[in-house]
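Quick bug: UDP-glucose iridoid glucosyltransferase-like output formatted oddly.
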Amino acid sequence: MGEQIPRIRHLVLVPLPYQGHINPMLQLGTALHSKGFSITVAHTIYNSPNPQNHPHFSFLPMPDGLSDSDLASGDLVSNIQVINENCKESLRRSLEQLMQEKELQGDTISCIISDELMFFAEDVANNLKLLSIILRTTSAATSFARCGLLKLGGEGQVSLQGSSSHDLVPQLHPLRFKDLPFSLTASFGKFAVLMEKAYSNRTSSAIIWNTIKCLEQSTLEKIQQQSQVPIFPIGPIHMIAPPVSSNLIKEDRSCISWLDKQPHNSVIFVSSLGSIASLSEKEVAEIASGLANSKLPFLWVIRPGSIRGSDWIELLPKDFHDAAGDKGCIVRWAPQREVLAHPAVGGFWSHCGWNSTLESIAEGVPMICKPCFGDQRVNVRYVSHVWRVGLELEELKREEIERAVRRLILHDEGKEMRDRATKLKKKFEICTREDGSSNYSLNELVNFIMSYDSLWCKRPQLG
Ligand code: UDP
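Here's what came back:
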């Protein structure tokens, strides 16, 4: 009889295959790899990560069953359901095999860490009696708002108020009805089914959160009080993990040498869609005119295919390039964190995806916020109203855009936002130091996983 200590502890990560979910999951893998774990990433065929960017990880592909028409529909809620239906068996089979291989080597799979929307991975972990932990990649405020939205939907209040109302939502201060995290494409009923699954009857033993105490302490406390399992807020994960790129689109680094030639704090960095949303030709024309008319330098990310009806920038107004002159630089995809850290960047026009929001604050860059859908609406409200490091753009109209850019880059109001963002940046640096709250949570997480490992190990040795 005796305790067998595994030589290598393996973690299996299961990201949701969208950029804003892949990035924090693979950053988490990098952070945990640096703590001595070995990492296997179980990924869908759709949007599969590039193994060359992660030479220390192993990869397990899972057939996801997503058809071309599923992908073309842009219906995220349905596609997440398809992924959940199709990946379970393949993950179970692959992990059974992996567990046998590891056992023979005297190693162990410690845990499955899955995105909060990859429900099947939790089922597989239960089935194989593995520790299961979920990663939430949105803000804590968004979780709170989603639960509140479900409740309001159940009470029939959501349709009564309409989602564009400026009225405050009872019990969800400071959110207005227009800030609630509705889906873009799915009906409320369909979206509610997905959210119910994300927030009720979870069986995981812990929650990792890509957020930071100094930003969301009170919301995190409320959530922890209601939670049966420990919560580890270790964000922004990119600040506690060794640097890693998990971009699905090739970054165009030429924009860094363009930025090198621009004056300090002068450039508005425009990445107003993130990795999913898209724009009509008319909306793009408004943005183009607003930027050109501001007469300030801009770096604009236009993701291929994000202007509906064109491959890239074919539908930009004909006179745009003349109007913008050498004031503008357009790229397909930017090294965003490096851009935000560049001294020439004075502001960030963002859709306020949660990663972009954290990355902007982490560099002390104030924002122009124009959400597209979902959690971005909640983030915008917090950025503009609670943390006050950004201004909300109400409408995609050229005059309003021109005014917002000039207010942020040139006016005192923008400078005050930059000062507040700089203060938050300093707090982020403190929280992500070796002795800061995010690193403390990361170490607690490691201890938590190890404590399960040792329980697993206390078993009779063969022979
Ligand atoms: N991103 C990037 N280059 C770009 C645009 C985006 O590297 O040109 C990265 C960005 O740094 C962030 C992620 O893509 O980490 C987008 O995630 P976010 O949560 O902000 O938005 P989503 O794409 O999920 O809407």
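Actually, after a second look the formatting is fine. The first helix runs from residue 19 to 33. Closing.
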